[in-house]
Amino acid sequence: MLTQEQLKSWEDNGYVRLGRIMSREELAALQRRIDDIMLGRVLYPGMFFQLDSDTGDYGDLWKQPQGYQGPTLNYRKIQDLERDPLFLAYMQHPFFRGLTRQLVGENVSCFRAMFMNKPAKKGTVLPYHQDGGSQWELDREHFITVWTGLDPATIENGCVQIIPGSHKLGLLSERGHTITPEQEALHCKEEDSIYLEADAGECFLLHNYVLHRSGVNTITQSRRAFSVVYMDAETRSKKTGELFPLIFGQGALAPV
Ligand SMILES: O=C(O)CCC(=O)C(=O)O
Question: What is the pLDDT of residue 153?
Answer without folding.
Answer: 98
